Every structure is written in structure tokens, then in C-alpha cells.
């Protein structure tokens, strides 16, 4: 942390009697503070942790892995199936029941292991970017995970931090806190370590308390934590803020898919039970058959496959320096078609250099540099790249000036002031965007001589021209102004008036070398980039020209204020560059883009970016960004680079592509199979497949799918943003399902007529056929193009072929007896080969049509 010069610290002993404001008795906490200035000891801290729980909204509740596992058996279908098998075992058919139970167990074990493995891996990644707090423990300042903060801890607050818990200030220096989330007031509120007797009225405004859910805009504070997690005063608001944005298209899609399947399962079960009652079947057998079919139909591995695919995507992204905070956001990440970005640090290097400090005659001026430096050095907000540039310009003698006050920067005013004492005089020194500063000036100073601006003065026009010329050459410009002010308890925004304009600071912030090239790759991959910057239009245009962003039309923040939402929606479609926009205007632009059905990504690293990071479909921040921004983001880049972001987006598309493959498989081939089964049940004198065989079939099929997350995705698929397409999935079910049924019925016919099959031969023949067609069709469905041109991953090929071969050899193994199989006549395999080939060809034809329609 950067130590600010001469912080004037006010220090008060808190009065415990009067300020009992939290759920934890303050007396006790302060007593501990008295006894040591060391913070809590590790032992005390862990005691408190046990007592008050983790500092997050979930409290200490952590479901044990065993519970997770058992949860898998709570699925009603699985529960009924298990009960039914136990009954069946008691009634006599112990072998069959045993097989069913074993398969269910194996399925759940596989499911559980896969899911928890990828969840753990993702959890680890997330821990690396988890928010931290600066906490005093055993006399040392530590960066601890924010959830480990406990009541009684002493925490340190600096600009850009999120307040980690409810706390009472012990020390504060020019501390300003943004608590819009609590009070709606967007201008930072100042906080002091004072004693207050009455804290009951308008609690959030208590000047000596800071709250979870707020953030530090400027200044320093040291505070004693009084409440954490669910015990915090405004915890519920914080929960709402932290809680994830509305569910994504993908999550909605998965849900509606689930509903579709449940309905189908429901009707299928009723259908079979009815047929069973009317027809010739034993009731118990019927029930077991119906339930096995239902289990076969439900894509029970769907959550697992989604988690594993997204999890592997997250790991691959991490290798490319992109950390995903919420797995679900990967899908949105791959769907981004519009990327909104700020300018500094993303397009430009962010290593801003101070190039000039001039008076109003455009001559180099030591006073402009001195006043600029005083302002930058004494302000305790986030040091912007502009401040860093001023401070790294070289040593400046600031002796004789002590700081007495500050009016922090905000993105609406675009300027900031410090008040310094020099001798008996107090000066307010303001620096900021030239138009903002000029608007607050009534005079100007040349060669030490002050003159008032006349109304509509020529001088004013001349000064405007001065900075505009610099801007057009690509320089960023700040104006510096000052005036003599009286000693006041507190300085406020309206003290920034009647200022005297002194001169300008100009900065170079050249574009990144690879920016133009990377922007081109975004374009060719279907992502349009829009620039939303707080900087002015001249500088912005200059940078845009250099990196090849079309900027004939630059929309200004001031124009936005006069636009209705529908008009804005039109404008955001056409314009690529928005300059001098405030945080709330950035937010409006994003909402407007969303209203036009764009999937919007927003990348930003500042306090001012937090609202937009929330509003966008995917908020992207950088590991060096402020806590507030990282908190609001879904994705964190370990390097502020558009290239990294681009790579990440492609990984996101890949993960999404693989989840969709699984769904298409589940809805088409698997679904068709189960359907044929129900159909066969109507006319066959025996069950078309035994319940245990159905489950084995599904289990093996599922195993073949477990490697889908590792599969390659076609380059053509990665070339454009991908969106959830329930229409495609539904039509796959409606068209590809029946295609597989055609071949199933053909198999039935041949089994019965050509091979005169009895029950066991029939079961065996169909088992082998259905397993082979069901799994091999993956090679067709996994690509929108020609399957021979698209290479599947090695592991996917291996598992799929292994399962097919396993199906072929099972009837010849000792397992055949218990499973109810018998060897097949050799002629059958000839027939099977013909079937498989024509099936795959037919699916290919239908697939092409469907894919083209939904492309
Ligand atoms: N520390 C500062 N002191 C004075 N003025 C500042 C400071 N930081 C920013 N400004 C003014 O506020 C304007 C907006 O800030 P800034 O450029 O950081 O906004 P932004 O929206 O984050 O844009 P970007 O990141 O694209 O540059 C700047 O152009 C500058 O005029
Ligand atoms: Mg910025």
C-alpha cells in the first residue's frame, strides 16, 4: 500500500456505553482492544470464527461431501427404483434386483466423483482471486480472505477497498465512503472516528461507522469490526448485491429442457402402466419396466456433464490467465457479441507520462507542476494513472505546504481538490478535466497577475482552444486552478468555485502495440468492440484512429442526457465510441445494448466501472483492478490485455459447444431409443428389454458421454458468438429421435421374422443394436459439418468405441447369464453393420437440414 504523506490522524477512544449498535457487545470488543494494540490473536480469532461464523451470507453451513452424495439418491425416480428392486429381490428375483442396485450405485459414484473433482478445481481457482481484507492479527497486518474476518478484528481501509464487515472507526484520515447501496446517495459520505451519542436515527449516516456493502472512495481508516456476515446491519442488501444477476439464457434453457423431459417421462410412465393394465403384463414387472425407462430417459448426468464441461473450460481459461468466478458465466462469455471497454489500460498502455506543465501562455510553469503535485500527493483517493504520472515525474519540493482537507474525486464532477496550509494562508487546489475546472473558475492568472473572466470572454475561448489543440494531438489534459480559502471544519463540493485558472498538465498515453491487431481478431470472431470512456472526445478520437476503431460518430455523455431510452437504443447500435460518459451513463448504454438483445461484456477496473460490471451480461475485471470492480465482475483477467480476453472468449465458446453436444445427444438418440421401447411394449408378448438391461444400457451410454467435455470443437463453431438455441434442441428431439426409432423397429422386425428370436435373443440383439447406434451417432452429431472432416478428441473416440465393443462382447462373457443375454448368430452382425451405416447416413442428412435452419 502506498503511504500517504503526513496523514493527520484523529484519534478517539470509543465510548462503549453510548454506542451499542451491533449484535456483538462492544464493551467486550473494546476491552480487548485496550488490552492489546495487536489485534486479535490467532486463537481468539478462531474462537470468534466458531462463535459468529464465517463473514459471508452462508454462515458456517457447509454441506459435507457425504450429504452431497446421498442427495443424488433423493431423486424420486431413483428412490422408487431402489425400493422396487428391493421388493423384487424379496419376491425372488435377487440377481436382477442386485444388478439394478449396483448400476444405480455406480452411476451415482461416477456422477459424484466427476462433479466434485471439477467443483474443487474451480473452487481453488476462485480462491486465488477471492476478496481480501487487511487485518491486524498478532500485531501484524495480514491480507486475509474477507470471509475470515471476525468481530473484534481490526481492519485497515484504503481507497478502492470494499468495507469487509460492519465496523466502527478508530482512526480516520479524510475517509470518504460510497454508500449508495444503502442510502441511494451517490456522492461519497465522509466518515470520522468521532464519538456519537445518538446512532438510532438514520443509522447508515452514523459518521463513525462503516458498513458491509459500501466501499472506500478515498482516505484511510482503521476500524474495529463489530458485526460480520448475516449479523451485519445491511447484510440483506449486501446479499442482494452479491447475489448473482438474473439467471442466464443458458440456465433458463437447461431448466426448460428439464421440464420438457419431465413431462415426457410422466406421460410415458402413465402410458406404459395403462397398456400394462389393459394388456397382458404382470403389474409389478410393468412398474419396474416403466420406471427403468423413465430413468433411462432422464438425462441424470446432465448437471454433472455441465459442471465438468464448464469446469474444464474454466481450467483451460485459467491457463490462459482468465479466472472465472461463476461457472455459469462461461456460457455468457462465449455468447458475447458486444464488448464494451474503457480506454485507459485496455486500449492504451495505461503507463501515462507527464509531458508538459504549462501556464496560460503555454510556457513551462513550475507553479503548475507544484500545485498539480500537491493535489496528487495529498489526495487519498485511488491514484489514477494521471496522478501516478505526476508523482513519478521527479522529486518536487513540497515543503511549506501541509494538508488540511480534501474533496475527493468523483466521475460526475471529474475534478478533485485538496486544501493546504502555507504559512497563515489556506489554499484550495483543484485539478481535473479542463471543462470541469474552467466551469468553476471566475478568474485566471498570468505571470502572477490575476484577471477576472469577462462574460463570454476571448480569454476563455483562447484557453479552450489551448487544451483542445493538445487533445487533438492525442495528449490528455488536466487543468489546475486554486484560490485562497478560509479555515473550515469540513470542505465540500461547493467550495470549488470562484477559482483562479493557473495552467494545464498534459500527458501522453500511447495505445498498446498489439491493440489494433487484437481488435481485428475480435471483429473477425463476431464481437464488436465499443469504447465507453470518461475521457474527452478529441483524445478518444485520436486513440481510436490509431487502433483502427471507426470513430466518425462519437457520442458525448451530455448528449445522452437528452435521449429517451428508445432513442438511445438506436444510437448504441450505430455508434462505437462514447466519450465523457459518467458511470451512470455507461450503465445506461449497457442496458440499451441489452435491450437490443445483444450479449454484452464489459471490461473495466475502476470504482466507476462497478455499476456497469454488474449491469453487463458478463462483467470482466483485472486482477490489478480495485476490489469494488473485482467484486462486481464475473471474470477476472490476470493480465489487462485484450488478447487474453479474446482467448478466454474462445474457450468459453468451446465449453458451451460441448454442453450442447450432450444435450443434442440426450434428446435425440437416447430419447428415440426409449421411445421405441415403449412402442415395442405394446405389441410384444414379453418385455422388449429387462429393467436391468435398460439401466445397464443407459449406464454404458452415459459412460461414453463422460469424455464429451474433452472433445474438440470445430473452428467454424468458434468463429462466432454462440447462443442458446432451444429450437434446435427441440427439433433434434422431434426429427432425429424418430429416425432412430425407424431403425429400432426394423431391428425388431428382423429379430422376430428373420431370426425367429425368442425373448433372450430379442433382448440381446436389441441391446447391442441400440447401444451401438446410440453411442456412435455422437460422431455425426458432434459437428455441424462433415463428420469425416471434424476430428473428435482421442479420449472421446476411445470411450465411445470401447462401449460399443463392450456391448458386442458382453453376450459372450460369463456375465451374459445373469444379465439375460445369449450369443448372437454371426449373420446378425452383418445385418447390424448395414443398419448402423444407413442410420448414421440418414441422421447426417437430417442433421444438416436442421443445423442449416438454425445456423
Ligand atoms: N486523479 C484525477 N485528478 C483529476 N482529474 C481526474 C483524475 N482522474 C480522472 N480525472 C478526470 O476525469 C476524467 C475521467 O476519468 P477517467 O479517464 O479515469 O475515466 P474512465 O471512464 O475510467 O475512462 P478511461 O478509463 O477510459 O480513461 C479524466 O479524463 C480526467 O479529466
Ligand atoms: Mg478507467
TrEMBL record:
<keyword id="KW-0997">Cell inner membrane</keyword>
<dbReference type="GO" id="GO:0016887">
    <property type="term" value="F:ATP hydrolysis activity"/>
</dbReference>
<feature type="transmembrane region" description="Helical">
    <location>
        <begin position="732"/>
        <end position="755"/>
    </location>
</feature>
<comment type="similarity">
    <text>Belongs to the cation transport ATPase (P-type) (TC 3.A.3) family. Type IIIB subfamily.</text>
</comment>
<feature type="domain" description="Cation-transporting P-type ATPase N-terminal">
    <location>
        <begin position="20"/>
        <end position="93"/>
    </location>
</feature>
<dbReference type="InterPro" id="IPR006068">
    <property type="entry name" value="ATPase_P-typ_cation-transptr_C"/>
</dbReference>
<feature type="transmembrane region" description="Helical">
    <location>
        <begin position="761"/>
        <end position="781"/>
    </location>
</feature>
<dbReference type="InterPro" id="IPR023298">
    <property type="entry name" value="ATPase_P-typ_TM_dom_sf"/>
</dbReference>
<keyword id="KW-0547">Nucleotide-binding</keyword>
<keyword id="KW-1003">Cell membrane</keyword>
<feature type="transmembrane region" description="Helical">
    <location>
        <begin position="97"/>
        <end position="113"/>
    </location>
</feature>
<dbReference type="GO" id="GO:0005524">
    <property type="term" value="F:ATP binding"/>
</dbReference>
<dbReference type="InterPro" id="IPR044492">
    <property type="entry name" value="P_typ_ATPase_HD_dom"/>
</dbReference>
<dbReference type="GO" id="GO:0005886">
    <property type="term" value="C:plasma membrane"/>
</dbReference>
<dbReference type="InterPro" id="IPR023214">
    <property type="entry name" value="HAD_sf"/>
</dbReference>
<protein>
    <recommendedName>
        <fullName>Magnesium-transporting ATPase, P-type 1</fullName>
        <ecNumber>7.2.2.14</ecNumber>
    </recommendedName>
</protein>
<feature type="transmembrane region" description="Helical">
    <location>
        <begin position="827"/>
        <end position="846"/>
    </location>
</feature>
<dbReference type="GO" id="GO:0015444">
    <property type="term" value="F:P-type magnesium transporter activity"/>
</dbReference>
<keyword id="KW-0597">Phosphoprotein</keyword>
<keyword id="KW-0460">Magnesium</keyword>
<feature type="region of interest" description="Disordered">
    <location>
        <begin position="1"/>
        <end position="20"/>
    </location>
</feature>
<comment type="function">
    <text>Mediates magnesium influx to the cytosol.</text>
</comment>
<dbReference type="Pfam" id="PF00689">
    <property type="entry name" value="Cation_ATPase_C"/>
</dbReference>
<keyword id="KW-0067">ATP-binding</keyword>
<dbReference type="InterPro" id="IPR059000">
    <property type="entry name" value="ATPase_P-type_domA"/>
</dbReference>
<feature type="transmembrane region" description="Helical">
    <location>
        <begin position="793"/>
        <end position="815"/>
    </location>
</feature>
<keyword id="KW-0472">Membrane</keyword>
<dbReference type="InterPro" id="IPR001757">
    <property type="entry name" value="P_typ_ATPase"/>
</dbReference>
<feature type="transmembrane region" description="Helical">
    <location>
        <begin position="287"/>
        <end position="311"/>
    </location>
</feature>
<dbReference type="Pfam" id="PF13246">
    <property type="entry name" value="Cation_ATPase"/>
</dbReference>
<dbReference type="InterPro" id="IPR036412">
    <property type="entry name" value="HAD-like_sf"/>
</dbReference>
<dbReference type="InterPro" id="IPR008250">
    <property type="entry name" value="ATPase_P-typ_transduc_dom_A_sf"/>
</dbReference>
<dbReference type="InterPro" id="IPR018303">
    <property type="entry name" value="ATPase_P-typ_P_site"/>
</dbReference>
<dbReference type="InterPro" id="IPR023299">
    <property type="entry name" value="ATPase_P-typ_cyto_dom_N"/>
</dbReference>
<keyword id="KW-0812">Transmembrane</keyword>
<dbReference type="InterPro" id="IPR006415">
    <property type="entry name" value="P-type_ATPase_IIIB"/>
</dbReference>
<keyword id="KW-1133">Transmembrane helix</keyword>
<feature type="transmembrane region" description="Helical">
    <location>
        <begin position="257"/>
        <end position="281"/>
    </location>
</feature>
<feature type="transmembrane region" description="Helical">
    <location>
        <begin position="66"/>
        <end position="91"/>
    </location>
</feature>
<dbReference type="Pfam" id="PF00122">
    <property type="entry name" value="E1-E2_ATPase"/>
</dbReference>
<dbReference type="InterPro" id="IPR004014">
    <property type="entry name" value="ATPase_P-typ_cation-transptr_N"/>
</dbReference>
<dbReference type="Pfam" id="PF00690">
    <property type="entry name" value="Cation_ATPase_N"/>
</dbReference>
